[in-house]
Predict the 3D structure of the following.
Amino acid sequence: MDQIEFTPQEEKVFGRSGDFRVLPRYRRAAAATALLFMLLFLALAAATRNAWIVAVCAVLYAGITLAEKLAYANALAAYKGVIVKLAKRIQELNHK
């Protein structure tokens, strides 16, 4: 890998490119955050008993945000897979 001049950030990304352990943790954190906000908005609406439209909008917003975060995590997994495959191929070519 000496022939490839990585920036410090690229070195970090490359070094972690095969580490898929972070993705389930990211998905759990995204789901937990969205669920907590949904519960918060619903609790506030129930406590005030006059903000149901706001609560529904907030829950929809949190649900959409959750979907976006999960889609990002899936895309990240794909990118990591590509990086690993490309890196392996480069190493094969360098050893020939």
About this structure: The mean pLDDT is 82. The chain is about 80% helix and 0% strand. The longest helix spans residues 52-94. The two ends are 13 Å apart (CA to CA).
